[in-house]
Amino acid sequence: MEIEGRTAVVTGAASGIGAALARALHERGARVLLADLAEAVTDTAAQLGQPHWTGDVSTATGVDDLLAAADRELGDVDLYFANAGIAGAPGIGGEHDWDRILDINLRAHIRAAERLVPRWQTRGEGYFVATASAAGLLTQIGQAGYSVTKHAALAFAEWLSVTYGDEGVGVSVLAPMGVNTKILWGEDPDSLSAEELAAQRAVSEAGNVLEPAEVAEAVMAAVESETFLILPHPEVLDMYRMKGSDYDRWIRGMRRYQAKLRGSGAAD
């Protein structure tokens, strides 16, 4: 997929990975609609001289409104980056927590694909990029909702590629570990609970914490080469292979790691 001259929508584009994706697309000559619930998306888009949309992609109505805005601003959408996401509640979470994180981290992807894939089938081309996480291949200590929705986002992207790849629909899924964004550090790092701090350390201490721009460069390279799995942290692949080779051993190791992060003194 050549990016120059293409049209793209990026959700969660006010800051972090989304803003970096929008900038990387802009630098490669794409026209980009930046979308976010946060008003800061206005300033981010203005810096790039690109249009923006402010709204909530966690609802079907929001996705409809976003794509209508994209049609007005860009015309046909060539690339869609389903990047908006939240970390969610610590622990198992409650009913409301699950509804919210499923809508943002998963259903927003499904709703966008439901509307875009038929268009792309007709045209014979289009590209869908889902932001998941290394937690989608491994797991997330501390936050069930994040782990489950990132697994599901990756699985949905995989299904899209298998089902529509021969009809010109390209699919990639981004699965990084630590990235220097608010999702990693939290809106207010000083107010994190012990459980939230353990979850944060599980990511930040597992490998290098990358800058969003580094991640965006990996995504651009993957789209241009039409590579499905994007791993800015290559060590994730080794971890995934270890997990698959002996699942029970891997789970025992993760339990020990969790105990260590929580300060129980358990041995490695």
Automatic annotation (TrEMBL):
Pfam families membership: adh_short (PF00106)
GO molecular function annotation: oxidoreductase activity
Tagged with keyword Nuclease: no
PROSITE patterns, A to Z: ADH_SHORT
Listed InterPro entries: NAD(P)-bd_dom_sf (IPR036291), Sc_DH/Rdtase_CS (IPR020904), SDR_fam (IPR002347)
UniProt entry tagged with the keyword Oxidoreductase: yes
Keywords linked to the UniProt accession: Oxidoreductase
Family stated for the protein in its record: Belongs to the short-chain dehydrogenases/reductases (SDR) family.
The protein's name in its UniProt record: Dehydrogenase
Native species: Brevibacterium sediminis
